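Supplementary notes (optional reading)

For those who missed the lab, this is the record we used. Protein: GNAT superfamily N-acetyltransferase. Length: 148 residues.
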Amino acid sequence: MEHITLYKDQFCISTDKTRLDIDDIHGFLSTKAYWCLNIPKETVLAAIQNSLCFGVYLNEKQIGFARIISDFSTIAYLGDVYILEEYRGNGLSKWLMETIMNHPDLQGLRRWILLTGDAHGLYRQFGWTDIADPSKWMELHNKNVYSK
């Protein structure tokens, strides 16, 4: 898979994993992301290694992140999406979503899925909807997996 790097003003989005600041990503996810508080660094690293990742940067400083889990044929799961609070309001979340949704290896998929507790408005701008028939969906969820 070829790396994509895009620039807008002083900001950059890149899929090059060598640019990712693992410590910063882990710091945000483990302390500020309601969906994975206390996640171990080793788990974050394994998730990154097995995902298509999108880093958002101001110059060389990582200020956002998202990752895709996919078979690149039929389905993609969007997760761990964030922009640091002090950089919100600059259209970066929308630009990140546009970049993800337009990625050449993510075209023609039958289904995209995600979980969100607070960003429904962002995703709806890109065609996401509530699950049409939740009775067909099942999950096995261990919400305390990262608890100490």
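If you only remember one thing from this example: The CA atoms of residues 74 and 110 lie 5 Å apart.
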